[in-house]
Target: site-specific DNA-methyltransferase (adenine-specific)
Amino acid sequence: MQDFIKYLKKEKIIDSLNFFYKDSSTTQANQLILNKLLENLISLENIKVKETTRVNDNLNRLEYDIFSKLYENTLNHKEKKKMGEFYTPISIVNYILSVIGYNSSNNIEDKTIIDISCGSGSFIIQAIRILIIRCLEIYGKKKISQLTTNEAKAIISKVNENIVGVDVNRNACILCQINIYFAIFEILKLIRKADSNYQ
Model:
């Protein structure tokens, strides 16, 4: 987690996202919520996280829970209810993705998936993880660290082209984007070792 937080700071990702999602309707209250959210995110810096590839891996669930719970705990119940925002348990996320056939044993590498109310990214992140697992299987690799630079870049392209999230809440969008960066962070690190200019 420490490497990830350093990456966010070094690349000024949070500042870029904040600027991207800022508009005339951004209220001071929204900005305060975002600031608290980001403070809480930075406090996670010392949590140890290992590379994982399996969907049902407990550590994978822990990573998912960290970010979704972070958002969930930043807003009070009244605010969430007013906006219709509630945490989707991972079991429900996995069930829905399974029902639509979005799993690593199917040919999902070119399947487009959109979450039109993505919140902090429950469905998006799990879809990315499943897509990564599928791509690892296609490339005959067991771990992200075994990918070639071109294979890693191809996975990032697949994520960019095929997985989409939308939300009316800018803070949810920002956290979802951070969550996406975290989901692909090991792949980005691998690419950056070979190509420091990769964006």
The first strand starts at residue 113 and ends at 115. The two ends are 20 Å apart (CA to CA). Confidence is low (pLDDT under 50) at residues 50-62. The chain has one domain: 2-194.
